[in-house]
Amino acid sequence: MSTTRPIRFFHQGAVREVSDAAPTRSVLDWLRDDARCTGTKEGCNEGDCGACTVIVAEPDSGAPGGLRLRNMNACLMFLPTLDGKALLTVEDVSALNSGALHPAQQALVDCHGSQCGFCTPGFVMSLTALYEDHCARGTRPDRQELADALAGNLCRCTGYRPILDAGERMFDGAQQRIEAAPIVAALDQLAASGPLHYAAPNPAFRAADGAPRIDHFHAPRSLDEFAALRAALPAARLLAGATDIGLWVNKQGRDLGNILFIGEVAELKRIEVQNGLLIIGAAASLEDAWRALADQVPGLTEMWRRFASPPVRHAGTLGGNLANGSPIGDGAPVLMALGARLVLRHGEAEREVPLDAFYLDYMKSQLAPGEFIARILVPLPDAGTTLRFWKIAKRYDSDISAVCGAFALRLQDGVVAGARLAYGGLAATVRRAAQAEAALVGQPWTHATVEAAVAALAKDFQPLSDLRASAAYRSRIAGQLLRRLWLETRTEAPLPAATTSVWEHAAATPQEVA
Length: 514
Prior knowledge:
The protein is of the alpha+beta class. It contains 19 helices and 20 strands.
Protein backbone atom coordinates (compact mmCIF):
# COMPACT_ATOMS: atom_id res chain seq x y z
CA MET A 1 0.00 0.00 0.00
CA SER A 2 1.34 3.46 -0.93
CA THR A 3 2.24 6.00 1.73
CA THR A 4 -0.38 8.57 2.62
CA ARG A 5 -0.46 12.03 1.01
CA PRO A 6 -2.71 15.12 1.10
CA ILE A 7 -5.90 15.50 -0.93
CA ARG A 8 -5.11 17.58 -4.03
CA PHE A 9 -7.62 19.25 -6.33
CA PHE A 10 -7.94 22.35 -8.52
CA HIS A 11 -10.04 25.22 -7.16
CA GLN A 12 -10.16 28.95 -7.96
CA GLY A 13 -7.21 28.85 -10.33
CA ALA A 14 -4.82 26.89 -8.14
CA VAL A 15 -4.12 23.42 -6.80
CA ARG A 16 -5.36 23.05 -3.23
CA GLU A 17 -3.87 20.64 -0.71
CA VAL A 18 -5.83 19.43 2.31
CA SER A 19 -4.19 17.23 4.91
CA ASP A 20 -6.20 17.74 8.10
CA ALA A 21 -9.86 17.19 7.12
CA ALA A 22 -11.67 14.08 8.30
CA PRO A 23 -12.21 11.63 5.41
CA THR A 24 -15.97 12.14 5.75
CA ARG A 25 -15.84 15.95 5.69
CA SER A 26 -18.24 17.12 3.00
CA VAL A 27 -17.20 19.40 0.15
CA LEU A 28 -19.99 21.75 1.24
CA ASP A 29 -18.60 22.09 4.79
CA TRP A 30 -15.08 22.60 3.45
CA LEU A 31 -16.26 25.30 1.04
CA ARG A 32 -18.24 27.27 3.57
CA ASP A 33 -16.16 26.80 6.73
CA ASP A 34 -12.60 26.44 5.44
CA ALA A 35 -12.43 28.06 1.99
CA ARG A 36 -14.99 30.74 2.98
CA CYS A 37 -16.77 30.30 -0.36
CA THR A 38 -20.23 31.00 1.01
CA GLY A 39 -21.95 31.41 -2.34
CA THR A 40 -22.65 27.68 -2.15
CA LYS A 41 -25.62 27.28 0.21
CA GLU A 42 -26.69 24.59 2.64
CA GLY A 43 -30.38 23.76 2.38
CA CYS A 44 -31.54 20.21 3.01
CA ASN A 45 -28.04 18.69 3.39
CA GLU A 46 -29.32 15.50 1.78
CA GLY A 47 -29.10 16.11 -1.97
CA ASP A 48 -32.72 17.07 -2.58
CA CYS A 49 -32.84 20.87 -2.83
CA GLY A 50 -29.85 21.69 -5.07
CA ALA A 51 -28.81 24.80 -3.11
CA CYS A 52 -25.29 23.36 -2.76
CA THR A 53 -24.86 22.48 -6.45
CA VAL A 54 -21.29 22.74 -7.75
CA ILE A 55 -19.56 21.60 -10.93
CA VAL A 56 -16.91 18.88 -10.79
CA ALA A 57 -14.54 18.71 -13.76
CA GLU A 58 -12.54 15.63 -14.72
CA PRO A 59 -10.17 14.88 -17.61
CA ASP A 60 -11.98 13.13 -20.46
CA SER A 61 -10.40 12.80 -23.89
CA GLY A 62 -13.83 12.34 -25.45
CA ALA A 63 -15.25 15.58 -24.03
CA PRO A 64 -14.91 19.06 -25.58
CA GLY A 65 -11.57 20.54 -24.57
CA GLY A 66 -10.66 17.27 -22.86
CA LEU A 67 -12.73 18.19 -19.79
CA ARG A 68 -16.01 16.68 -18.58
CA LEU A 69 -18.18 18.97 -16.45
CA ARG A 70 -20.96 17.63 -14.25
CA ASN A 71 -23.15 19.36 -11.69
CA MET A 72 -23.26 17.58 -8.32
CA ASN A 73 -24.44 18.12 -4.75
CA ALA A 74 -21.57 19.34 -2.57
CA CYS A 75 -23.37 18.17 0.59
CA LEU A 76 -23.11 14.50 -0.45
CA MET A 77 -19.48 14.54 -1.60
CA PHE A 78 -16.71 13.58 0.79
CA LEU A 79 -13.70 15.85 0.29
CA PRO A 80 -11.22 13.06 -0.60
CA THR A 81 -13.37 12.12 -3.62
CA LEU A 82 -12.31 15.45 -5.19
CA ASP A 83 -8.70 14.29 -5.41
CA GLY A 84 -7.37 14.80 -8.95
CA LYS A 85 -10.44 16.77 -10.06
CA ALA A 86 -11.44 20.43 -10.36
CA LEU A 87 -14.10 22.10 -8.24
CA LEU A 88 -16.05 25.02 -9.72
CA THR A 89 -18.45 27.09 -7.63
CA VAL A 90 -20.68 30.08 -8.24
CA GLU A 91 -17.70 32.33 -7.40
CA ASP A 92 -15.80 30.82 -10.33
CA VAL A 93 -18.37 31.39 -13.06
CA SER A 94 -18.49 35.15 -12.43
CA ALA A 95 -14.69 35.27 -12.43
CA LEU A 96 -14.48 33.93 -15.98
CA ASN A 97 -14.85 37.40 -17.50
CA SER A 98 -13.04 39.67 -15.03
CA GLY A 99 -15.97 39.61 -12.65
CA ALA A 100 -18.71 40.16 -15.23
CA LEU A 101 -21.80 38.03 -14.79
CA HIS A 102 -21.91 34.65 -16.56
CA PRO A 103 -24.65 34.36 -19.22
CA ALA A 104 -26.65 32.17 -16.83
CA GLN A 105 -26.38 34.79 -14.08
CA GLN A 106 -27.20 37.70 -16.39
CA ALA A 107 -30.21 35.86 -17.80
CA LEU A 108 -31.54 35.24 -14.29
CA VAL A 109 -31.25 38.97 -13.61
CA ASP A 110 -32.91 39.94 -16.89
CA CYS A 111 -35.75 37.45 -16.48
CA HIS A 112 -36.33 38.18 -12.77
CA GLY A 113 -35.47 34.57 -11.96
CA SER A 114 -34.38 35.23 -8.38
CA GLN A 115 -36.42 36.41 -5.41
CA CYS A 116 -34.99 35.47 -2.00
CA GLY A 117 -31.84 34.30 -3.81
CA PHE A 118 -31.01 31.36 -1.55
CA CYS A 119 -31.46 28.75 -4.28
CA THR A 120 -30.04 30.94 -7.07
CA PRO A 121 -26.35 29.84 -6.86
CA GLY A 122 -27.45 26.23 -7.31
CA PHE A 123 -29.55 27.13 -10.33
CA VAL A 124 -26.60 29.08 -11.76
CA MET A 125 -24.35 26.02 -11.52
CA SER A 126 -26.85 23.64 -13.12
CA LEU A 127 -27.55 26.18 -15.87
CA THR A 128 -23.82 26.69 -16.41
CA ALA A 129 -23.25 22.95 -16.82
CA LEU A 130 -26.12 22.81 -19.32
CA TYR A 131 -24.77 25.91 -21.12
CA GLU A 132 -21.33 24.34 -21.52
CA ASP A 133 -22.79 21.10 -22.83
CA HIS A 134 -24.99 22.71 -25.48
CA CYS A 135 -22.43 25.32 -26.54
CA ALA A 136 -19.93 22.51 -27.13
CA ARG A 137 -22.46 20.66 -29.30
CA GLY A 138 -23.75 23.74 -31.07
CA THR A 139 -27.31 23.12 -29.89
CA ARG A 140 -29.93 24.80 -27.72
CA PRO A 141 -32.16 22.96 -25.25
CA ASP A 142 -35.91 23.15 -25.56
CA ARG A 143 -38.02 24.00 -22.52
CA GLN A 144 -38.53 20.36 -21.52
CA GLU A 145 -34.79 19.70 -21.65
CA LEU A 146 -34.27 22.72 -19.41
CA ALA A 147 -36.85 21.42 -16.95
CA ASP A 148 -35.19 17.99 -16.92
CA ALA A 149 -31.75 19.55 -16.34
CA LEU A 150 -33.08 21.57 -13.39
CA ALA A 151 -34.98 18.68 -11.77
CA GLY A 152 -32.48 18.64 -8.89
CA ASN A 153 -32.88 22.34 -8.06
CA LEU A 154 -35.85 23.52 -6.00
CA CYS A 155 -37.21 27.07 -5.78
CA ARG A 156 -39.67 27.93 -3.02
CA CYS A 157 -40.63 31.51 -3.92
CA THR A 158 -39.76 32.69 -7.44
CA GLY A 159 -41.50 29.98 -9.41
CA TYR A 160 -39.96 28.09 -12.29
CA ARG A 161 -41.33 30.05 -15.25
CA PRO A 162 -38.81 32.94 -15.06
CA ILE A 163 -35.98 30.48 -14.32
CA LEU A 164 -36.84 28.49 -17.45
CA ASP A 165 -37.06 31.78 -19.35
CA ALA A 166 -33.52 32.53 -18.17
CA GLY A 167 -32.36 29.12 -19.34
CA GLU A 168 -33.56 29.99 -22.82
CA ARG A 169 -32.24 33.57 -22.69
CA MET A 170 -28.67 32.64 -21.70
CA PHE A 171 -27.98 31.30 -25.20
CA ASP A 172 -28.91 34.56 -26.94
CA GLY A 173 -25.63 36.48 -26.55
CA ALA A 174 -22.00 35.80 -27.35
CA GLN A 175 -20.66 32.58 -25.88
CA GLN A 176 -18.72 32.83 -22.64
CA ARG A 177 -17.21 29.41 -22.06
CA ILE A 178 -15.15 27.99 -19.23
CA GLU A 179 -11.53 27.88 -20.40
CA ALA A 180 -10.62 24.21 -20.22
CA ALA A 181 -6.89 24.32 -21.06
CA PRO A 182 -5.49 25.57 -17.72
CA ILE A 183 -7.75 23.21 -15.79
CA VAL A 184 -6.70 20.23 -17.92
CA ALA A 185 -3.02 21.14 -17.50
CA ALA A 186 -3.40 21.28 -13.72
CA LEU A 187 -5.29 17.98 -13.62
CA ASP A 188 -2.63 16.32 -15.77
CA GLN A 189 -0.06 17.33 -13.17
CA LEU A 190 -2.24 16.01 -10.36
CA ALA A 191 -2.58 12.66 -12.13
CA ALA A 192 1.16 12.16 -11.66
CA SER A 193 0.68 12.13 -7.90
CA GLY A 194 -0.49 8.53 -8.00
CA PRO A 195 -3.50 7.04 -6.20
CA LEU A 196 -4.74 8.66 -3.03
CA HIS A 197 -4.15 6.97 0.29
CA TYR A 198 -5.17 9.50 2.90
CA ALA A 199 -5.22 9.47 6.70
CA ALA A 200 -6.47 12.15 9.08
CA PRO A 201 -8.01 12.52 12.55
CA ASN A 202 -11.77 12.19 12.73
CA PRO A 203 -12.87 14.44 15.62
CA ALA A 204 -16.31 12.80 15.73
CA PHE A 205 -14.81 9.56 17.10
CA ARG A 206 -12.17 8.80 19.72
CA ALA A 207 -9.44 6.19 19.94
CA ALA A 208 -8.87 4.15 23.11
CA ASP A 209 -6.50 6.80 24.48
CA GLY A 210 -9.15 9.52 24.06
CA ALA A 211 -7.44 11.20 21.12
CA PRO A 212 -9.32 11.73 17.83
CA ARG A 213 -9.27 8.50 15.88
CA ILE A 214 -7.20 8.32 12.69
CA ASP A 215 -9.34 7.19 9.75
CA HIS A 216 -8.06 6.10 6.33
CA PHE A 217 -9.37 6.72 2.83
CA HIS A 218 -8.06 4.51 0.02
CA ALA A 219 -8.70 5.33 -3.65
CA PRO A 220 -6.83 2.80 -5.82
CA ARG A 221 -6.89 3.34 -9.57
CA SER A 222 -6.48 -0.18 -10.93
CA LEU A 223 -9.00 -3.01 -10.67
CA ASP A 224 -6.40 -5.48 -9.37
CA GLU A 225 -5.26 -3.12 -6.61
CA PHE A 226 -8.86 -2.39 -5.66
CA ALA A 227 -9.73 -6.09 -5.50
CA ALA A 228 -6.65 -6.84 -3.41
CA LEU A 229 -7.45 -4.02 -0.97
CA ARG A 230 -11.08 -5.09 -0.76
CA ALA A 231 -10.01 -8.63 0.14
CA ALA A 232 -7.40 -7.40 2.63
CA LEU A 233 -9.76 -4.85 4.26
CA PRO A 234 -13.18 -6.54 4.29
CA ALA A 235 -14.38 -4.33 7.14
CA ALA A 236 -13.62 -1.09 5.28
CA ARG A 237 -16.68 0.82 4.07
CA LEU A 238 -17.01 0.52 0.30
CA LEU A 239 -17.85 3.95 -1.13
CA ALA A 240 -19.10 4.87 -4.60
CA GLY A 241 -21.07 8.10 -5.13
CA ALA A 242 -22.02 8.66 -1.44
CA THR A 243 -25.57 9.57 -2.51
CA ASP A 244 -26.80 7.26 0.24
CA ILE A 245 -23.77 6.90 2.51
CA GLY A 246 -23.43 10.68 2.64
CA LEU A 247 -26.79 10.78 4.40
CA TRP A 248 -25.55 8.30 7.00
CA VAL A 249 -23.00 10.92 8.05
CA ASN A 250 -25.06 14.11 7.54
CA LYS A 251 -28.30 12.91 9.08
CA GLN A 252 -27.39 10.02 11.36
CA GLY A 253 -23.82 10.73 12.45
CA ARG A 254 -22.86 7.15 11.66
CA ASP A 255 -19.34 5.85 12.01
CA LEU A 256 -17.95 4.75 8.63
CA GLY A 257 -14.47 3.86 9.84
CA ASN A 258 -11.92 3.30 7.08
CA ILE A 259 -13.16 3.90 3.53
CA LEU A 260 -12.34 2.15 0.25
CA PHE A 261 -13.37 4.32 -2.73
CA ILE A 262 -14.31 2.63 -6.00
CA GLY A 263 -14.68 5.83 -8.01
CA GLU A 264 -11.11 6.02 -9.35
CA VAL A 265 -11.06 2.57 -11.00
CA ALA A 266 -11.42 3.34 -14.72
CA GLU A 267 -11.93 -0.34 -15.59
CA LEU A 268 -15.07 -0.40 -13.46
CA LYS A 269 -16.55 2.61 -15.29
CA ARG A 270 -16.47 0.91 -18.70
CA ILE A 271 -19.73 0.31 -20.56
CA GLU A 272 -19.77 -1.86 -23.69
CA VAL A 273 -21.88 -4.25 -25.75
CA GLN A 274 -20.51 -7.74 -26.32
CA ASN A 275 -22.13 -10.96 -27.50
CA GLY A 276 -25.67 -9.80 -26.95
CA LEU A 277 -24.93 -8.32 -23.52
CA LEU A 278 -24.79 -4.76 -22.31
CA ILE A 279 -21.91 -4.84 -19.82
CA ILE A 280 -21.96 -2.02 -17.25
CA GLY A 281 -19.04 -1.55 -14.88
CA ALA A 282 -20.15 -1.24 -11.28
CA ALA A 283 -18.54 2.21 -10.93
CA ALA A 284 -20.24 3.66 -14.01
CA SER A 285 -22.31 6.66 -13.01
CA LEU A 286 -26.08 6.34 -12.90
CA GLU A 287 -26.31 8.91 -15.68
CA ASP A 288 -23.98 6.96 -17.99
CA ALA A 289 -25.55 3.61 -17.11
CA TRP A 290 -29.14 4.77 -17.65
CA ARG A 291 -28.17 6.44 -20.92
CA ALA A 292 -26.67 3.15 -22.13
CA LEU A 293 -29.75 1.22 -21.00
CA ALA A 294 -32.11 3.67 -22.72
CA ASP A 295 -30.03 3.48 -25.92
CA GLN A 296 -30.65 -0.27 -26.01
CA VAL A 297 -34.19 -0.19 -24.54
CA PRO A 298 -35.86 3.10 -25.56
CA GLY A 299 -38.79 2.37 -23.25
CA LEU A 300 -36.47 3.18 -20.33
CA THR A 301 -36.07 6.85 -21.27
CA GLU A 302 -38.77 8.03 -18.87
CA MET A 303 -37.38 5.90 -16.03
CA TRP A 304 -33.96 7.44 -16.71
CA ARG A 305 -35.38 10.97 -16.45
CA ARG A 306 -37.29 10.17 -13.28
CA PHE A 307 -34.48 8.32 -11.50
CA ALA A 308 -33.37 10.87 -8.88
CA SER A 309 -31.99 14.15 -10.31
CA PRO A 310 -29.06 14.97 -12.62
CA PRO A 311 -26.71 15.91 -9.74
CA VAL A 312 -27.47 12.62 -7.98
CA ARG A 313 -27.20 10.59 -11.20
CA HIS A 314 -23.83 12.22 -11.94
CA ALA A 315 -22.43 11.14 -8.57
CA GLY A 316 -24.15 7.82 -7.83
CA THR A 317 -23.37 4.52 -9.53
CA LEU A 318 -25.56 1.69 -10.78
CA GLY A 319 -23.42 -0.84 -8.92
CA GLY A 320 -23.93 1.11 -5.69
CA ASN A 321 -27.66 1.32 -6.30
CA LEU A 322 -27.85 -2.47 -6.59
CA ALA A 323 -25.45 -3.22 -3.74
CA ASN A 324 -27.42 -0.91 -1.45
CA GLY A 325 -30.32 -3.36 -1.63
CA SER A 326 -33.05 -0.81 -0.99
CA PRO A 327 -36.52 -2.34 -1.42
CA ILE A 328 -37.64 0.88 -3.14
CA GLY A 329 -34.72 1.22 -5.55
CA ASP A 330 -35.76 1.61 -9.18
CA GLY A 331 -32.69 0.06 -10.76
CA ALA A 332 -33.23 -3.47 -9.46
CA PRO A 333 -36.80 -4.02 -10.79
CA VAL A 334 -35.79 -2.85 -14.26
CA LEU A 335 -32.71 -5.04 -14.38
CA MET A 336 -34.55 -8.07 -12.95
CA ALA A 337 -37.16 -7.81 -15.69
CA LEU A 338 -34.33 -7.72 -18.23
CA GLY A 339 -32.75 -10.85 -16.72
CA ALA A 340 -29.56 -9.15 -15.50
CA ARG A 341 -26.72 -11.00 -13.79
CA LEU A 342 -24.03 -9.66 -11.47
CA VAL A 343 -20.34 -10.50 -11.64
CA LEU A 344 -19.03 -10.59 -8.07
CA ARG A 345 -15.30 -10.48 -7.41
CA HIS A 346 -13.17 -11.46 -4.42
CA GLY A 347 -9.44 -11.03 -4.94
CA GLU A 348 -8.79 -12.62 -8.33
CA ALA A 349 -11.84 -14.92 -8.26
CA GLU A 350 -15.14 -14.05 -9.92
CA ARG A 351 -18.60 -15.60 -9.84
CA GLU A 352 -21.92 -14.79 -11.49
CA VAL A 353 -25.21 -14.40 -9.62
CA PRO A 354 -28.62 -13.71 -11.19
CA LEU A 355 -29.88 -10.40 -9.86
CA ASP A 356 -33.19 -11.99 -8.86
CA ALA A 357 -31.25 -14.33 -6.52
CA PHE A 358 -28.90 -11.66 -5.16
CA TYR A 359 -31.07 -10.29 -2.35
CA LEU A 360 -31.58 -12.49 0.70
CA ASP A 361 -33.52 -10.21 3.05
CA TYR A 362 -33.95 -6.55 3.89
CA MET A 363 -30.62 -4.85 3.05
CA LYS A 364 -28.91 -8.26 2.91
CA SER A 365 -27.37 -9.82 -0.18
CA GLN A 366 -25.10 -12.62 -1.34
CA LEU A 367 -22.01 -10.41 -1.10
CA ALA A 368 -19.41 -12.16 1.07
CA PRO A 369 -16.87 -10.25 3.19
CA GLY A 370 -14.21 -8.78 0.90
CA GLU A 371 -16.38 -9.26 -2.21
CA PHE A 372 -17.77 -6.53 -4.45
CA ILE A 373 -19.91 -6.11 -7.57
CA ALA A 374 -17.59 -5.76 -10.57
CA ARG A 375 -19.97 -5.73 -13.54
CA ILE A 376 -23.64 -5.92 -14.43
CA LEU A 377 -24.51 -8.14 -17.41
CA VAL A 378 -27.76 -7.16 -19.11
CA PRO A 379 -29.04 -9.42 -21.92
CA LEU A 380 -30.25 -7.32 -24.84
CA PRO A 381 -33.97 -8.03 -25.38
CA ASP A 382 -35.04 -9.55 -28.66
CA ALA A 383 -37.83 -8.24 -30.88
CA GLY A 384 -40.24 -10.85 -29.51
CA THR A 385 -40.11 -9.50 -25.95
CA THR A 386 -42.53 -6.79 -24.87
CA LEU A 387 -41.18 -4.51 -22.15
CA ARG A 388 -42.88 -1.98 -19.90
CA PHE A 389 -41.50 0.01 -16.95
CA TRP A 390 -43.57 2.20 -14.64
CA LYS A 391 -42.72 4.28 -11.58
CA ILE A 392 -45.52 5.40 -9.24
CA ALA A 393 -44.60 8.24 -6.89
CA LYS A 394 -46.16 11.33 -5.35
CA ARG A 395 -43.99 13.67 -7.46
CA TYR A 396 -43.00 13.19 -11.07
CA ASP A 397 -39.37 14.30 -10.57
CA SER A 398 -36.87 13.46 -7.85
CA ASP A 399 -39.08 11.24 -5.75
CA ILE A 400 -38.84 7.78 -4.26
CA SER A 401 -41.23 5.22 -5.70
CA ALA A 402 -44.23 3.98 -3.81
CA VAL A 403 -44.30 1.13 -6.34
CA CYS A 404 -42.03 0.42 -9.28
CA GLY A 405 -43.11 -2.24 -11.78
CA ALA A 406 -40.97 -3.71 -14.56
CA PHE A 407 -42.36 -6.30 -16.96
CA ALA A 408 -40.95 -8.50 -19.73
CA LEU A 409 -43.52 -10.53 -21.65
CA ARG A 410 -43.13 -13.03 -24.50
CA LEU A 411 -46.19 -14.09 -26.44
CA GLN A 412 -46.39 -16.94 -28.93
CA ASP A 413 -49.59 -17.43 -30.92
CA GLY A 414 -51.55 -15.53 -28.28
CA VAL A 415 -50.17 -17.63 -25.40
CA VAL A 416 -47.80 -16.36 -22.72
CA ALA A 417 -44.49 -18.11 -23.42
CA GLY A 418 -42.53 -16.25 -20.77
CA ALA A 419 -43.01 -13.54 -18.15
CA ARG A 420 -40.72 -11.66 -15.79
CA LEU A 421 -42.63 -9.40 -13.40
CA ALA A 422 -40.42 -7.45 -10.97
CA TYR A 423 -41.66 -5.06 -8.32
CA GLY A 424 -40.03 -2.59 -5.97
CA GLY A 425 -41.80 -1.17 -2.92
CA LEU A 426 -43.89 -4.25 -2.14
CA ALA A 427 -41.58 -6.31 0.06
CA ALA A 428 -38.39 -6.23 2.13
CA THR A 429 -36.46 -6.65 -1.11
CA VAL A 430 -37.06 -5.97 -4.76
CA ARG A 431 -38.16 -9.28 -6.22
CA ARG A 432 -40.07 -11.04 -8.95
CA ALA A 433 -43.72 -12.00 -8.58
CA ALA A 434 -43.27 -15.78 -8.84
CA GLN A 435 -46.92 -16.71 -8.24
CA ALA A 436 -48.22 -14.15 -10.72
CA GLU A 437 -45.70 -15.30 -13.33
CA ALA A 438 -46.84 -18.90 -12.84
CA ALA A 439 -50.45 -17.82 -13.35
CA LEU A 440 -49.50 -16.29 -16.71
CA VAL A 441 -47.06 -18.70 -18.36
CA GLY A 442 -48.73 -21.22 -20.63
CA GLN A 443 -52.05 -19.40 -20.54
CA PRO A 444 -53.76 -17.41 -23.30
CA TRP A 445 -53.10 -13.68 -23.02
CA THR A 446 -56.64 -12.73 -22.05
CA HIS A 447 -58.35 -10.55 -19.49
CA ALA A 448 -59.23 -13.63 -17.43
CA THR A 449 -55.58 -14.73 -17.34
CA VAL A 450 -54.48 -11.26 -16.22
CA GLU A 451 -57.08 -11.22 -13.45
CA ALA A 452 -55.79 -14.58 -12.23
CA ALA A 453 -52.28 -13.13 -12.14
CA VAL A 454 -53.53 -10.05 -10.26
CA ALA A 455 -55.13 -12.32 -7.67
CA ALA A 456 -51.87 -14.26 -7.35
CA LEU A 457 -50.00 -11.07 -6.43
CA ALA A 458 -51.56 -11.35 -2.97
CA LYS A 459 -49.53 -14.54 -2.47
CA ASP A 460 -46.35 -12.88 -3.72
CA PHE A 461 -46.45 -9.71 -1.65
CA GLN A 462 -47.82 -8.40 1.64
CA PRO A 463 -46.70 -4.76 1.46
CA LEU A 464 -46.35 -2.41 4.42
CA SER A 465 -47.80 1.05 4.97
CA ASP A 466 -45.48 4.03 5.33
CA LEU A 467 -45.37 7.75 4.54
CA ARG A 468 -45.21 7.09 0.80
CA ALA A 469 -48.24 4.83 0.49
CA SER A 470 -50.54 2.48 2.38
CA ALA A 471 -50.36 -1.29 2.00
CA ALA A 472 -53.80 -1.31 0.35
CA TYR A 473 -52.75 1.32 -2.16
CA ARG A 474 -49.56 -0.53 -3.03
CA SER A 475 -51.44 -3.81 -3.55
CA ARG A 476 -54.02 -2.12 -5.73
CA ILE A 477 -51.40 -0.31 -7.84
CA ALA A 478 -49.40 -3.52 -8.36
CA GLY A 479 -52.49 -5.12 -9.87
CA GLN A 480 -53.39 -2.03 -11.88
CA LEU A 481 -49.96 -2.05 -13.51
CA LEU A 482 -50.55 -5.62 -14.66
CA ARG A 483 -53.91 -4.58 -16.08
CA ARG A 484 -52.25 -1.65 -17.84
CA LEU A 485 -49.72 -4.07 -19.33
CA TRP A 486 -52.58 -6.14 -20.74
CA LEU A 487 -54.45 -3.12 -22.09
CA GLU A 488 -51.38 -2.00 -24.02
CA THR A 489 -50.46 -5.45 -25.35
CA ARG A 490 -53.72 -7.38 -25.80
CA THR A 491 -54.06 -9.06 -29.16
CA GLU A 492 -57.25 -7.19 -30.09
CA ALA A 493 -57.29 -3.39 -30.16
CA PRO A 494 -54.30 -2.73 -27.87
CA LEU A 495 -54.32 0.76 -26.44
CA PRO A 496 -51.52 3.15 -27.38
CA ALA A 497 -49.28 3.95 -24.42
CA ALA A 498 -50.41 7.59 -24.49
CA THR A 499 -53.98 6.46 -23.84
CA THR A 500 -53.04 4.88 -20.53
CA SER A 501 -50.78 7.73 -19.37
CA VAL A 502 -52.16 10.17 -16.82
CA TRP A 503 -49.55 12.71 -17.95
CA GLU A 504 -50.88 12.71 -21.50
CA HIS A 505 -54.39 13.28 -20.16
CA ALA A 506 -53.21 15.99 -17.77
CA ALA A 507 -51.68 17.87 -20.72
CA ALA A 508 -54.80 17.51 -22.85
CA THR A 509 -57.50 20.15 -23.13
CA PRO A 510 -60.97 19.46 -21.64
CA GLN A 511 -62.35 19.04 -25.16
CA GLU A 512 -59.69 16.44 -25.99
CA VAL A 513 -60.47 14.50 -22.82
CA ALA A 514 -64.20 14.60 -23.56
